[in-house]
Each structure stands twice: as structure tokens, then as C-alpha cells.
Write a structure and sequence with these properties.
Length: about 140
């Protein structure tokens, strides 16, 4: 979900939930727009066997990474990518991805956030390279 910085900050601090957001808090995925990407949810039913959960998880992440590249292709500038989790599986995934683990202002919910342009994470480097390529092309 694309958010303005102020909306993201209010969500992170637990002042509002995503259902309290108004239109002005959610910018469009438009060319040249600068957004703060908030990953609301990614989930796999825990009833599935572990092997299936891993396969589905890999597919979810591949789709997410493709989405980021599509945003770069459109010229959407992602300033930060942020996610929170209260489950062990979610926390484990964020750590595996290498997302910086921050101190959360909300007890019981762990916070992960990265400044995209400064990140050395491979999938974010691909996004940044694609965005730079897009921005260097004449309109």
C-alpha cells in the first residue's frame, strides 16, 4: 500500500489503523510519485505442510519482487519499504530478507523498514537500477 510519510508514521505509532486512512494518505502509483511502501500482509495458511508453505512463500515473494520492478518501470519512487509483524513466521521472513529490524513503538508488533535508495539488498538494488534506467530515458 502506498502511503504518505505522515500517514505511515501514524500507522507505525499505532495512532491509526489502515482502515482509518483517508484518500490524501494514499498516493497513486503514478510516474514520478514518491511513496512510502507499507506491506500490509503476506500470509500462507499454517495448515499446509511446511514444504508447501515454503513453496507458496517463495511464489509470494517472487510476485512481490516483480511488483517492485513494475513500479520502477512506471517511474514510481519508493522512498521506504516498511512492514510489521506479530508472528514468529513473519519476523523470521523479514530477518531472512535482511530488512532492518527497528524498535517498534507498539508493544508486541515488530517493525522492519528500509530506505530503498540506500539499501544494498539485492532485490532493492534491482529496483533502484531499473528506476535509474527509466529516469534516464527521454519521455
Amino acid at each position: 500500500m502506498p502511503l504518505t510519510r505522515s500517514a505511515l508514521d501514524r500507522v507505525i505509532r499505532g495512532e491509526i489503523s489502515i482502515t482509518d486512512l483517508v484518500d490524501e494518505d494514499i498516493p497513486l502509483f503514478a510516474a514520478g510519485a514518491t511513496i512510502h511502501l507499507y506491506v500490509v500482509a503476506m500470509a500462507i495458511d499454517p495448515k499446509f505442510p511446511i514444504k508447501i508453505r515454503h513453496e507458496y512463500g517463495a511464489a509470494l515473494l517472487a510476485g512481490f519482487f516483480s511488483f517492485l520492478l513494475a513500479l520502477a518501470e512506471r517511474g514510481v519512487i519508493i522512498e521506504t519499504a516498511t512492514a510489521r509483524s506479530h508472528t514468529q513466521e513473519g519476523i523470521k521472513l523479514m530477518r531472512r530478507l535482511g530488512l532492518p529490524w527497528l524498535i517498534s513503538p507498539v508493544p508486541g508488533i515488530e517493525l522492519f523498514s528500509v530506505r530503498v535508495a540506500e539499501s544494498g539488498m539485492p532485490f532493492l538494488r534491482k529496483y533502484s537500477a531499473k528506476l535509474a534506467e527509466k529516469r534516464s530515458l527521454p519521455n
